[in-house]
């Protein structure tokens, strides 16, 4: 049975994960197997639990103990539940909890690219995307629009950061993902070579004179395709575009030259899904 603990001391060391550790400290780069992430809102937490993630502790508004937090408490036996009123929790965390519940969870051991791509026909590759809202939105689109997996280059934002996981509506726990390299020098050419060795054609989403339309029949007919999307401001690096098999654009109208990367991902994923 979970232990319900009323917060009377904001300096309690067990609350550090919710209040005083940065995202980088939670990730624990020195010992990744001991890393923690914070899931926010009942729906996101439930999806993480359904995917097999291990809870460490819960933080919730007192009113949720017998409300929307009841199911979570029953699913997390022996996990401490720290509770207080909304004002105290906002003072502790520095922000108002969107849905009144946080859960500290163990980070998973990420699979290799080769293991993740076994049997996959469509994968999304995210290059240097650092905005957590965009990461969350892209994961949601990837899960909904028939991508088999998501690969992130070493400089991408952490998909398990609190905001990315919340914006994704928990789909970061539903679609397989991993990093394609641990160091900046592992991308682009080493990473593109890995994908090509796995039988993938690579499609760089970018504007250029050599671009083919996203609905090009040859592109859509590829048996295995990796769709590569770039950073919010500059897009894909020139070396990435040069190393890909295709350069692909979404035809625009009304003088608009491009879409936000999250919106572009949704169009590309739907159009280029495997048939």
Percent range for helical residues? Answer: 25-40%
Order of helices and strands: EHHEHEHEHEHEHEHEHEEHEHEH
Mean pLDDT: 93
Number-wise, the strands total: 12
CA gyration radius, whole angstroms = 21 Å
Spans where pLDDT lies below 50 across 5 or more residues:
none
The tally of helices reads 12
Biggest sheet, open or closed, and with what strands and sense?
Answer: 7 strands, parallel
Strand order of the largest sheet: 8-7-6-11-9-12-10
Strand content: 15-25%
Report the end-to-end length measured between terminal Cα atoms. 48 Å
Broad shape: elongated
Q: Kindly name the structural category.
A: alpha/beta
GO molecular function, one term: RNA binding
Protein name: RNA methyltransferase
Organism: Candidatus Flavonifractor merdipullorum
Pfam families: SpoU_methylase
Explain how this protein is built.
With 275 residues, this protein is α/β, with parallel strands linked by helices. It contains twelve helices and twelve strands. It has helices at 16-19, 23-27, 42-50, 70-75, 86-93, 113-116, 132-144, 162-167, 189-197, 217-220, 238-243, 261-271; strands spanning 4-6, 36-40, 55-61, 81-84, 101-106, 122-126, 149-152, 177-179, 201-205, 212-213, 225-229, 246-249. The strands form two sheets. Strands 8-7-6-11-9-12-10 form a seven-stranded parallel sheet. The protein has a five-stranded mixed sheet with strand order 1-4-3-5-2. α7 (132-144) packs parallel to α12. The chain is elongated. It starts with a strand and ends with a helix. The model has no long low-confidence stretch (mean pLDDT 93).
């Amino acid at each position: 049975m979970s232990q319900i603990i009323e917060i009377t001391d904001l300096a309690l060391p067990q609350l550090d994960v919710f209040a005083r550790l940065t995202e980088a400290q939670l990730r624990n780069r020195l010992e990744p197997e001991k890393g923690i992430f914070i899931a926010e809102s009942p729906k996101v937490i439930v999806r993480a639990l359904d995917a097999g993630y291990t809870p460490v502790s819960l933080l919730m508004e007192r009113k949720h103990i017998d409300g929307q937090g009841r199911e979570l408490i029953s699913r997390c036996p022996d996990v401490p539940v720290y509770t207080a009123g909304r004002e105290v929790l906002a003072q502790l965390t520095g922000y108002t909890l969107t849905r009144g519940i946080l859960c500290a969870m163990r980070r998973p051991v990420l699979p290799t690219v080769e293991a993740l791509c076994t049997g996959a026909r469509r994968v999304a590759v995210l290059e240097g995307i650092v905005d957590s809202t965009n990461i969350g939105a892209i994961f949601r689109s990837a899960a909904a629009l028939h991508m088999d997996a998501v690969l992130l280059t070493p400089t991408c934002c952490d998909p398990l950061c609190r905001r990315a996981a919340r914006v994704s509506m928990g789909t970061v726990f539903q679609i397989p993902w991993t990093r394609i390299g641990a160091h900046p020098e592992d991308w682009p050419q080493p990473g593109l070579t890995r994908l090509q060795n796995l039988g993938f054609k690579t499609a760089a989403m970018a504007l250029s004179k050599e671009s083919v339309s996203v609905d090009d029949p040859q592109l859509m007919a590829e048996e295995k395709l990796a769709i590569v999307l770039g950073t919010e401001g500059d897009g894909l690096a020139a070396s990435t575009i040069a190393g890909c098999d295709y350069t692909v654009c979404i035809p625009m109208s009304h003088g608009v030259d491009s879409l936000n990367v999250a919106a572009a991902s949704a169009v590309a994923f739907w159009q280029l899904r495997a048939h």
